[in-house]
Structures are given as C-alpha cells and as structure tokens.
Please model this.
Amino acid sequence: MIASSAATPRDRISALWREIAASSSGPIYVALLLVTVVTWALILGNGGQINVTNTLVRSVALGLVAVGQTLVILGGSLDLSVAYQISITAVLASYVMQGDPDRMWLGVGAVIVVGLLIGLANGLIITGLGVNAFIATLGTSLLLRGVLNASFDNFTGAVPKAFQGLGYGSLGPVPYALLLFASLVGVVWFLLRRTRFGHHLYAVGASPETARLSGIRVNRVIIGAHMLCSLTAVLTGLFIVSRLRAGAPWVGPDGNYDLESIAAVVLGGTALAGGKGGVLGTLAGVLLLALLDNAFNQLQVNTFLKDVVRGLIIVAAVAVYALGERRRHA
Model:
C-alpha cells in the first residue's frame, strides 16, 4: 500500500527525538541540550558573552583523551595512566624539539613510540599477568610519575613556532585543534561501527568468555584498545605543549585528565562494565563538561562549589542511565 503523503519535517523530527530518547546515550543528549539553553540564558542574562570557538578549543585536550578512554572502557577495561602519559608526551616532545623546526618530527615520532610502548605495557600487564585494569594502570601511572618527578621539576625545552600552529592556528575560521578532534571522532566512530576490531571490542566488553568461545582473540583486542588509548593521550600532550610552548611534568595531573576522561565517557552513556556505548556519546559528554566550565567561569562560581555541582551532575546522569537500563531489563 502506498502512503497517501510523505512524512512531514515535523514527523521526521519527532521520530529522531524518539530515537535519541530511546538510545543508551539519550539522557546525555537531552541534558546537553538543556544545559546549552540554560547556559546561554544565564550568561546573556548577566550581560556576559560566550565564545563558542574558545569553548570548543578548550574542550579539545579532554576530548582527545576521552575518545581513547572510550575504547578501553568499551572493552571492559580502563586507563588511569593517561594523565601522566600526557605529561610524558609534553615534556619529551619539548625536550627533543628544543625549539628547532628541524627536530619537530623527531619529537613527534619519539612521543608516539613511547606512547605505544606504554599502551602495550598496560595491555600486556592486564592480559598476560591477569592484573585488574584499575590496579595495572594505576601502577603504570605511579611509575610514570616517579620518572617525571625524578627527571624534571619545571618547564623544559621548547617547541618551534611552526608546531605552535596546532594550538593556535586555523584553517579559515576553524582552528586546527577542532579539525584534529573532529577527525579523531570520525575515525574512531568508523573503527567502532564499520570494522572487525570495533565489533570485536563490543563483544569483548559485553562478555570476554563468550567472545573467546566465538573465536575472538580477546587479549589482542584489549591490548590494541590500550595502545590506541595511549595514542590519544599522546595527541592531548602534543596539543597542550603546542599551546604552552614547553612541557612540564604537572600538565597532565593538574588537568585531572584520568578521572575527567572517565567522567566524560560515563556521562556519554558508555557502560563502565563495557560492551555498550560509543564515541558520539563521549563527544556529548565532553561538550557538556565544557559548557558547564564556561558557565561557571562566566558566572564566577566558587571553585569548590563548581566541583560539587559537577560531581552531582555526573552522579545524576549515571543514576538516570542506570534506572533506564533497569527498566529495559525489567
């Protein structure tokens, strides 16, 4: 039977809204919309202005590493060492480059190799030695902190002016940093939805034993996820050092990128147990945190009160998601 009329734009919007609300990340998308509206109302109502581009650029550092954290959490793991991996990247890159444009790619290559080795080590400790991911990556974090504190106590080296374009340059009106972030999100979305590795990662996160019985090489998948997560930490470190112009051992932990990245992933609807979620939800979680920070700064909210509100929002978002899952399985 042929429909008497095509669906109207209103019908299509209603269908899209129902699909979003029914998805695992639905609550975060709705929350993001509400926070955006409230943020604009509060800021503009108080005579302030919101710079959308600056807000997005400030979210890049967290966004890059949160994308990698999404991969390991989807696989039923996590990585608490990313903050110090970011510091290692920033310090090593500026130390190797020494402000010399001819050493720029040498510095980039060095930190990529180190990042891959750290991710490989995390994956092998978890899969080969059977150590819980929380303990394994916490141990790696402490090891990296010890190396950093024993070797550096202040800013070191410098990055050449050409490399600073990553943090401050733009292609027309669009900053290079946003292009990098958008490209990474697109690549990881394709990896998760259109490749065998992505399908295997979801299977491993849902049930490692079932995945193993299905012929999936579980250990390789987990190791691969940790290596990719380390690469995103390297990207964050490179972005930060391009803006600071020199690396310091505290840039990673001072940004709380370990816990903040996990919070963004969970806010985006990815289950901590693994096997459910996606990078688009993480993107929404990162934007939500960025908008909150912008609103707090514009309204000059007390730092401690800011942490309390952020914590309450994270707990509330996870609680809403958990209640929704319980109702689906009831």
Summary: The chain has 15 helices and two strands. Residues 1-5, 19-24 have pLDDT under 50 and may be disordered.
